[in-house]
Design brief:
Layout (H helix, E strand, L loop, with lengths): L1 H14 L11 E3 L2 E3 L1 E5 L16 H13 L4 E8 L6 E2 L5 E3 L4 H14 L3 E8 L9 H12 L1 H19 L5 E8 L18 H18 L5 E5 L15 H5 L3 H15 L5 H12 L9 H8 L9 E4 L24 E5 L13 H7 L4 E2 L12 H14 L1 H4 L10 E6 L5 E2 L5 E8 L5 E8 L2 E6 L4 E5 L5 E11 L4 E3 L3 E5 L4 E5 H4 L1 E3 L3 E5 L7 E5 L5 E9 L3 E10 L6 E7 L2 E8 L7 E9 L2 E9 L4 E9 L17 E2 L10 E8 L3 E9 L4 E10 L2 E8 L6 E9 L2 E9 L2
Parallel strand pairs: 3-4, 3-12, 4-7, 7-8, 8-9, 9-10, 10-11, 11-12, 14-21
Antiparallel strand pairs: 1-2, 5-6, 13-15, 15-18, 16-17, 16-19, 19-20, 19-21, 22-32, 23-26, 24-25, 25-32, 26-31, 27-30, 27-32, 28-29, 28-31, 33-34, 34-37, 35-36, 35-38, 38-39
Helix pairs in contact: 2-3, 4-5, 5-6, 6-10, 8-9
């Protein structure tokens, strides 16, 4: 009797244990039941990774290979996100297609993933689709898609189904995810920086999309990225942390503010964030995504979720923590992937043990946030989490794929930041090996263009005949199965170059609110542009480039808010890079970038992604341009022409001529004679110049612009009308 009693007690204990090992704690992928061990990307170029424009496939290949190397098997990628690029809409706001190149780009990313034995969790939309700063047109058409069934079905029929149908059966797909944190745009949970819709609209959208996916590809898995267990369980989730939040120290408030702003690109201050969290803490749990509840809103019997995806950050409190509660606690009937969390010590669990803790608590996956947002999780920590799963629970994460080992390659010469004299012969060398085969080829690249190769050790070449400038050197190894890996890179400078600075406050045309010109004696020319927003752009024009080619440009910048900051760079209207500005705070620094310029006029645009930084100037080598206009004669006299257009709003162009090298100063005054701006204060060569004046921060009225060059002075009036 005592024996059976002990068995009964043991069974009851196991049934309530946080440690759950069952099929329900795995995701079916590749005909295996796996624990998803990986990361969020979640994007390389926010809302622009697929569809019209360039996709950085090399970046995807690199990230996926690093995950493969450390035993990871999953990567979460955002697709449409806000709808700014894909899908394609008509003038009435109806979706008419996936968008040019959308399916092709996604297929190529999935090919790269499968070659590296990594599956993709494909997230269609994010709450950012209702962020107030994305623009009225985007907001309006996204709202219709969320709230009007005819607009929803236009998306489903014309974009979603073609995507799923074209890609069904691709071994690189783990699941389709309908939303990232849709609660953030809901009446029930959303914050003030988003336009809100009812949770019932979100449930309906999830149901209709999930049903269409299941009918198009019966083997496909569907999930939804839920912001918190508060929206995913009927179990009580009332938090006891409201009092704690109100008693935070000023330092703790600022840490909370930084974390919240970084994660959600929020402009809320610390007190507003605390007020929001205190409101949320009083909301009890309710699972909006049960089969019955989403079917009741959308009416599609096929529109259910195959597994749940939930996010957790410590500011929401331990009552909703997957690290302190096992899966049994939530009384859910589907596998649960913890699809966002920070790789830091959490709720008493050391960061090195986070993956293991989720695994042992019965969850079906661990995907920390994010490869792009390294303030939350470093690449090293995420990869270490994956490696720990591979080392300790390999059978639960090992994908039976095709990859094998990829070659290993390291660039050994030249060293990064090496400077060479003009006319130098530069030795480029690399070390390469392959664990399960042989190296068949090593190619050497300069600015991503092949300049030589070697097929046997030592892998080396001599590069010569280059012009003065900055160059990026790398190497690519290929093994006997065709697998390739790119080495680390080294940036070098050959010879010396003089640079022309186009001061942001004088030469950059700004677009958007929250962009201001401020004075600062430590800035170049005594002023700079402050970007107190994440929406808008700065555009410079480089006139008269001598010849098409690859050149270095330099951004002068300062990080005054936090770090890092990602901004898009467009050259002549085409996206060419997403630059990460990451450095010591409150120090003026330079960030170089290699770009391809055409002959003649070129535009360089910084399109804000994360915004919130200071910009001082754009610099380019003096030698690449002809400062005079393309005419037969140099100017013979000093002259200052009338600005055009005039009157203007908000920008105008001032044209002037310099017959000899002179110290040139162009100053703007208001009608009372108060100086409001210095556009130029530098030595300039003979030539005819055009300078843009942006008065977006000034009020309407009459302004005076004055040219001083050598002993020459001239002033003219212009009218700003807003």
């Amino acid at each position: 009797m005592n024996f059976f009693y002990r068995i009964l007690v043991l069974l009851l204990a196991l049934s309530h244990s946080n440690i759950v090992y069952s099929q329900s704690s795995r995701i079916e992928y590749n005909n295996q039941d796996l624990f998803l061990s990986g990361a969020n990307l979640a994007w390389k170029s926010f809302a622009r990774d697929i569809g019209p424009g360039n996709t950085d496939f090399d970046h995807f290949a690199d990230v996926l290979l690093q995950i493969h190397d450390h035993g990871g098997n999953a990567l979460r990628l955002w697709l449409h996100t806000t709808g700014v690029v894909s899908p394609e809409f008509d003038n009435d706001g109806l979706v008419i297609g996936p968008g040019e190149g959308t399916i092709e780009d996604l297929r190529q990313i999935l090919d790269l993933a499968w070659e590296r034995e990594v599956g993709m969790k494909l997230c269609l939309w994010s709450f950012d689709m209702q962020r107030l700063t994305i623009g009225d047109n985007l907001l309006a058409r996204n709202r219709l898609m969320l709230t009007d069934t005819s607009y929803t079905m236009a998306y489903v029929n014309n974009a979603l189904i073609p995507m799923v149908d074209s890609l069904k059966g691709h071994p690189g797909i783990i699941a389709w995810e309908i939303f990232n944190e849709p609660e953030g745009m809901s009446d029930e949970f959303g914050w003030r920086e988003t336009d809100h819709v009812a949770m019932s609209n979100i449930q309906r959208f999830v149901n209709l999309c999930a049903g269409a996916i299941h009918r198009t590809d019966p083997e496909a898995k569907v999930t939804n990225g839920v912001w918190s267990f508060k929206a995913l369980t009927d179990v009580a989730t009332l938090s006891k942390s409201s009092l704690d939040l109100s008693q935070l120290s000023e330092i703790e408030k600022q840490e909370l503010k930084k974390s919240f702003q970084q994660k959600y690109r929020s402009e809320l201050n610390a007190d507003e964030i605390i007020e929001y969290l205190q409101k949320i803490n009083k909301i009890n749990g309710f699972n909006y995504y049960t089969d019955e509840r989403i079917i009741s809103e959308g009416g599609d019997e096929d529109g259910t979720l195959d597994f749940y995806s939930v996010h957790y950050y410590t500011h929401l409190g331990e009552s909703v923590s997957p690290f302190t509660h096992g899966t049994n606690h939530w009384s859910l009937d589907k596998p649960i992937v913890v699809a966002e969390f920070a790789m830091s010590n959490t709720d008493g669990v050391l960061k090195d043990d986070l993956f293991k803790q989720l695994f042992q608590n019965g969850y079906a996956g661990a995907l920390p946030w994010s490869w792009t947002d390294i303030d939350f999780s470093s690449h090293t920590d995420m990869l270490a989490g994956m490696q720990s799963m591979w080392d300790n629970f390999r059978s639960a994460v090992d994908v039976n794929g095709i990859a094998g080992d990829f070659p290993i390659i390291t660039l050994t010469e030249p060293d990064n930041d090496t400077e060479f004299d003009e006319g130098s012969n530069i030795t480029i060398s690399a070390e390469a090996s392959d664990n399960d085969g042989t190296i068949t080829l090593v190619e050497f690249l300069v600015n991503d263009k092949k300049v030589g190769e070697d097929v046997s050790e030592p892998y080396t070449m001599v590069w010569s005949g280059m012009e003065n400038g900055r160059y990026t050197i790398s190497a690519v190894a290929t093994d006997d199965t065709g697998n390739k890996r790119t080495s680390n890179s080294a940036m070098i400078r050959v010879g010396t170059l003089d640079y022309v600075r186009l001061e942001a406050e004088g030469f950059a045309v700004s677009h958007g609110s929250g962009i201001s010109i401020l004075d600062d004696v430590s800035a170049s020319n005594g002023a700079y542009i402050e970007l107190r927003t994440n929406v808008g752009s700065l555009t410079w024009t480089i006139d008269n480039v001598n010849a098409a080619g690859i050149y270095e440009i330099i951004f002068g910048y300062r990080l005054s808010f936090d770090r890092p900051k990602h901004q898009f760079i467009n050259v002549n209207g085409e996206r060419v890079a997403e630059v990460v500005f990451d450095s010591t705070l409150n120090v003026w620094l330079e960030e170089p970038l290699i770009v391809d310029l055409k002959e003649g006029e070129n535009t360089i645009q910084m399109e804000l992604s994360w915004g919130w930084m200071d910009v001082d100037y754009l610099a380019y080598p003096t030698s690449i341009v002809t400062s005079v206009e393309k005419n037969d004669e140099l100017p013979l006299i000093y002259s200052l022409e009338q600005n055009y257009p005039n009157p203007f709003n908000p920008s105008t162009t001032i044209r002037y001529a310099i017959p000899e090298a002179s110290k040139v100063k162009i100053t703007i005054y208001d009608i009372l004679g108060r100086q409001v701006r210095t556009l130029v204060n530098d030595v300039q060569n003979t030539g005819v110049y055009n300078i843009s004046f942006d008065a977006a921060a000034l009020s309407s009225g009459v302004y005076i612009y004055r040219l001083q060059a050598g002993d020459f002075f001239e002033s003219k009036r212009m009218i700003l009308i807003k």
